[in-house]
Amino acid sequence: MTDPQAPTPTQRAGFAAIIGAPNAGKSTLVNRLAGSKVSIVTQKVQTTRFPVRGIAMQGEAQIVLVDTPGIFSPRRRLDRAMVASAWGGADDADVVVHLVDAASHIAAEGKEGQAADRRSAEDTETIVAALTAAGTKVILALNKIDGMRRDTLLALSNALFETGAYSEVFMISAATGDGVDDLKARLAAAMPEGHWLYPEDQAADVPIRVLAAEITREKVYLRVHEELPYSAAVETTAFVDKPDGSARIEQTIYVERDSQRPIVLGKGGQTLKWIGQKSREDLIEILGRPVHLFLTVKVDPKWQDSRALYAQFGLDYDA
Hints:
Largest sheet: 6 strands, mixed
Distance between the termini: 49 Å
Strand content: 15-25%
Strand order of the largest sheet: 2-3-1-4-5-6
Shape: globular
Number of helices: 10
Radius of gyration: 20 Å
């Protein structure tokens, strides 16, 4: 007798983790694969603080994308929690993609390389060493290949592949989409047979309160990335569905020092107004309904030691 609950022979579903050094383009790739905004993207490194599950469909395959925080040498409690979260996401996945910023890696080898390029290359070497020690081969994706010489890319590809950490190599541009379809097809083929884990039209598995907080944090860094270091967090303190179908969202932006509060507020409150407007525009698009967003800026020198904030992002406080 046929089991009515059995998946169709071609239906597949599983998890694909995207790991890499900070600012390798992981969030951009997840957004590109999922076809919607599920992870924040800024010019700052370390903007992803917790694994975000984007959901991509490829034929009969459902790929649950785990966008992990950048892997680097941790110094603070938050750093350790983020790195532990990244490796945890990789351990639980059916397939792992190591995304490498090819342009930064090549620049690090030349005189034109900046300190950020050298740090990225060093973090990549750390990841390669860990993958090699683990003995589990993963997929290598060389990102940001736009305008790069083919012979230069091939030399980098060969050098990394010879480490023995990889099963295959893809060359892509997450920003433009070049090569991403081929990578997506490969991930779909790697998914195990089974029922889809989420509805076909769902793009992300992130609590809306958390996603709303991350969107606002993105706008904070987009606007004040020069003046404000990584000393800010956003918490959604209220999310109310109104009778008219709109949503009322209240959020608190935490900074560590009194001197940082006026930076976020801006002259006459104009910076905070811009942050709220841009965040609200994204939330309206994602939720498909009117949004009333209210922002407050508070100084809390110890926000990075708040267990509640770690819990909000699914991070291990004691990592």
